[in-house]
Amino acid sequence: MPYLDRPGKPTLYYELDDYTDPWRAAPALVLQHGFGRSSRFWYSWVPYLSRFYRVIRPDLRGLGRSARNFDVKNELGLQHYLEDLIAITKDIGVDSVHYCGESFGGILGLALAAERPQLFRTLSVVSAPAFITEHDKESTTYGHGSRIAALRKMGAREWAKASNSGRRFPADADPGLLDWYVDEMGKSDVEVLVAMFAWVSRFSTVPYLSKIEAPVLGLYPSEGPITEDAQIRMLEERIPDVRIIRIPSRYHCIATLQPAACAKAVLHFAARHDGMPCHE
Questions:
Q1: Which backbone phi and psi does 227 adopt, to 5 degrees?
Q2: Is the pTM of this model over 0.85?
Q3: d(CA 207, CA 27)
Q4: Which of 62, 71, 212, 279 could form an SS bridge with 75, CB 3.0 to 4.6 Å?
Q5: CA distance 213 to 8
Q6: Number of H-type helices and E-type strands within the chain
Q7: What pLDDT was estimated at residue 278?
């Protein structure tokens, strides 16, 4: 559970789960969480992946156990996230990784893979839109005019609770899961979330898609409320090497609702690229 200290830059935290054979040089697989989340949200994926891959779960700057000792207004953007990812890979001692990003983490992955192609062995994205639609922006204001105003007035926990309803999880989801999800998202620094949304709401991965060299796997709910079918078609048309799998669900959080299906799809996708067996 390393902390990565860097002079003049935010301290980063990441989890490293490695149950691979000690005599093998197992490839690394980065799991990057979404908006308001942390490395803890990947817990259900680790058993499926860590026997075959060195699983790295970073907390994005300012979230989870990564520090907020940076200027959130001016030091939070694509190049800062790229710098953080490179720092973590160097700390682990690898030149390239398989990358899987969920939602906001997937948006980052689509752009970062185009910016630094030599770093990405494969790219997997889960419920990741190509850009934030106007409908999505408007559907998360909860009567406060904008998502930023809602975050500041409601706080991270209450905003997460409102956002879970109908978007992330079904009404009959395990109450324990919903409480845990809200409690974990509620730990997020509101001003970090505001800065993240201010950036991503203006950002589009569209100019980056055709530049992605790594094979791409997209996992999307069959009737998801955030990523529209038109965006998925855009990914299929513009990314040179892409495979889309639709997971039967009407909800955004397929990574949490169906971890086995999602993690196994990513595992086999990465393993095919590496030409290695991922069964025993």
A1: -95, 115
A2: yes
A3: 29
A4: 71
A5: 33
A6: 11, 8
A7: 87
